[in-house]
Amino acid sequence: MIQQVLRFGVMAVALGAAAGAQAQAPASDYPGSKPVRMIVPFPPGGGTDILSRIIAQKLTEHNHWTVVADNRAGAGGTIGITEATKAQPTGYDIVMGQKDNVVLGYYLYKGLPWNPAKDLTPIAHVAYSPVIIATAETSKFKTLNDVIAAAKADPGKITYGSPGNGTSIHIAGVLFEKAAGVKLTHVPYKGSNPALVDTLSGNVDLLVSSVPSAIGQIKAGKLRPLAVTSAKRSSSLPDVPTVAELGMKGFDVSTWYGLFGPKNLPAPIVTKLNTEVNKLLADKGVQEAIQAQGAEPQAMSVADFDKFFHQDFKDSKAIVESSGAAIQ
């Protein structure tokens, strides 16, 4: 009887080891020939879309993988995040998230079926970007101080477009209003590109946007940059002053981009994706491609990105509350 129990115990250990090996096998050869879907929570043409396609294309080229960008826009980018949280933790559905939807969206959209700190797995930090305040080249506003003076003379008359309520871009606009002591009228859009189009056509006075979303039209001479919101000038737009330089000392608002998967994503897959993304971010050609879009590439280890993300999530609650930003 004892021998039989021992025999069953040995068999159980063996079966458990085999099951463990089978569970680990997909991670060891991941992704194999199966395509990886990279969910992009904003429409085509915006900063998140552009960066997502750079990373998807380069992962495909460098590793002979098939990584496909899939736009799932809406609700300030939270629809795409919701879809990612519902995916199976296999590594074949990942999402390019950012401060806007992953962190701020949680505090601004009521009834979301997920908590980012519990339902997402941080994979790799990709880049960060300042926010830019710009206007059409045909606009009467030549400097940010022109905007401030006009806004003080006629509160609420000047409009600015953003990629949506509750995004980091919207909050940057709200914080700018508070710092400058002015009242502007916010016009939310479903993504950066529609806001850009309406700015160029004169339907709104100002564009508040990520640099990647606006830099193409700036270089084309159709959009006049007035200021960036980061503490330092953008390396892509070194001639554009910061808001802090123009008199609002200490003003510093930027956004970040990173890859996430659903909760319980196996650590070997997370490590593999993080390693390959960081290799790309060390490549000069990839760095230049990201910088050409107005963002700054920044690699982090899995542990560092996890720490960074959770700290930002914790800190952002008070920022959202103090900004007064709300979903209308």
Automatic annotation (TrEMBL):
<keyword id="KW-0732">Signal</keyword>
<protein>
    <submittedName>
        <fullName>Tripartite-type tricarboxylate transporter receptor subunit TctC</fullName>
    </submittedName>
</protein>
<comment type="similarity">
    <text>Belongs to the UPF0065 (bug) family.</text>
</comment>
<feature type="signal peptide">
    <location>
        <begin position="1"/>
        <end position="23"/>
    </location>
</feature>
<dbReference type="InterPro" id="IPR042100">
    <property type="entry name" value="Bug_dom1"/>
</dbReference>
<keyword id="KW-0675">Receptor</keyword>
<dbReference type="InterPro" id="IPR005064">
    <property type="entry name" value="BUG"/>
</dbReference>
<dbReference type="Pfam" id="PF03401">
    <property type="entry name" value="TctC"/>
</dbReference>
